[in-house]
Design brief:
This protein is α+β, with helices and mostly antiparallel strands and 149 residues long. It has a single domain, classed as Sufe protein. Chain: A (Alpha-Beta Complex). The chain contains three helices and three strands, in the order αβββαα.
């Protein structure tokens, strides 16, 4: 019985090691431009509260990510930009507006980090832009699934 348990344990460890080695680093990508989109972000209670979604455009050259653009949108498809965080076209709450703009600025930083790193693994979220980070990851994975050979 001990031999059977030992054999099962060894098999489990070997299988786990093989799975760990077969990560996204071993995937090759076809050259081209690919778009990916996240789902609409929902809060734990199932509401979207206007959080919207993210969309990424990836350029793959020589099998590697050579360029990335990431934008976020309101649920209605309006791009979040310099007016994001304003109410009726004006800054009603400066703290809220600054936080919203910081989250928008993080989108470009996420794209730059991905190009520099070459993969999602190892990227960290930026404080104040965690929802965008989650949308970014989902959108990149969507685009990369289309580019996978």
């Amino acid at each position: 019985m001990k031999k059977i348990i030992s054999a099962i344990a060894i098999t489990t460890v070997c299988a786990a090691a093989l799975l760990a080695c077969s990560d996204s680093k071993n995937v090759t990508y076809k050259d081209g431009t690919y778009e990916g989109k996240s789902s609409v972000f929902e809060n734990e209670d199932g509401t979207d509260d206007g959080n919207g979604y993210g969309q990424v455009t990836l350029v793959i050259k020589d099998g590697k990510i050579s360029d990335c653009e990431f934008k976020v949108y309101e649920v209605d498809g309006t791009e979040k930009g310099e007016d994001y965080g304003k109410e009726d076209g004006r800054i009603a709450n400066k703290d809220y507006y600054n936080k919203a703009q910081k989250a928008i600025a993080a989108c470009e930083e996420y794209a730059n980090m991905l190009v520099a790193n070459g993969q999602l693994e190892g990227l960290d979220s930026i404080s104040g832009a965690t929802i965008n980070f989650n949308e970014f990851n989902e959108a990149v994975n969507d685009a990369l699934s289309k580019a996978a050979e």
